Amino acid sequence: MVQSKIRAVIFDLDNTLVDFLRMKRTSVEAAITAMIAAGLPMSEDKASKLMYDLYDKYGIEYSQIFQRFLERAGKEIDYHVLAAGIIAYRKAQAGILEPYPQVMPTLMKLRESGLKLAILSDAPRLKAWLRLVELKLDSFFDVVVTFDETGKTKPNKEPFLKVMEKLKLKPQECLMVGDWPERDLIGAKAIGMPTVFAKYGYFGKSKPSIKADYSINSISELLKLFS
């Protein structure tokens, strides 16, 4: 059970509240299939490897990823292929983006208990808000801090300090919930904030080297920490 002085719960967004990687994989597969059908002279396996290599280089939220992909795939961008890929990606994304099971009832019960709720995300401001509004999660949160607020990503201390400033609370009065230990947990621990590891959203290949104060296998288990 967490200490009674906890007054707020801060959540990472992608892969903590939203099944982002499932959406990303499905959307990329749809885009590649559509681009090949539109004339891209590349196998699905080769195209997939190139796409994820570019995500590794530019970041998973990079808005010009299809342009960079087609520049690497050929000497110039084929706009027919580009349009096919973007449309297929957007259609797949709209059909599959969803919160993890029990997210809404868990957030509702946390709010009913008098806790403040916040989002701390490395996503750009607009993309974070688009996801929150689309999934009808926006009304649950008192504070939303994204990459645009500080220009820094976790585990840098600045995003964590910014959310503290907006909540008007001290680190020890908040609980950080995240799926990425090397970002969410290290950054929170660096300023003295207790942590919860969202194991259900972790896709790392090895056991995390950072130990959280608490671990949960589903978001609903968070409620047990306050019972």
Q: Specify the structural class.
A: alpha/beta
Q: What is the CATH topology assignment of the largest domain? A: Rossmann fold
Overall mean confidence score, pLDDT: 92
Query: Beta-sheet strand percentage?
Result: 5-15%
Order the strands across the largest sheet as they lie in space. Answer: 3-2-1-4-5-6
Count of beta strands: 6
Helix content range: 40-55%
Oligomer: single chain
Structure description:
- The protein is an alpha/beta fold.
- The chain folds into 2 domains: 8-19 and 98-226, HAD superfamily/HAD-like (Rossmann fold, 3-Layer(aba) Sandwich), CATH 3.40.50.1000; 21-96, DNA polymerase, domain 1, CATH 1.10.150.
- 46% of the residues lie in helices and 11% in strands.
- The chain has 9 helices and 6 strands.
- The protein starts with 7 loop residues before the first strand and ends in an 11-residue tail after the last strand.
- The model has no long low-confidence stretch (mean pLDDT 92).
In short:
By secondary structure, the chain is of the alpha/beta class. It has 9 helices and 6 strands; from the N terminus they run βαααααβαβααβαββ. It has helices spanning 20-37, 44-58, 65-73, 79-96, 103-112, 125-134, 147-150, 157-167, 181-190, and strands spanning 8-11, 116-120, 143-145, 174-178, 195-198, 214-216.
Keywords:
single chain, 227 residues, alpha/beta, Rossmann fold, DNA polymerase, domain 1, 2 domains, six-stranded parallel sheet, 46% helix
Which helices and strands appear, and what pairs or packs with what?
Layout: E1 8-11, H1 20-37, H2 44-58, H3 65-73, H4 79-96, H5 103-112, E2 116-120, H6 125-134, E3 143-145, H7 147-150, H8 157-167, E4 174-178, H9 181-190, E5 195-198, E6 214-216
Helix pairs in contact: 1-2, 1-4, 2-3
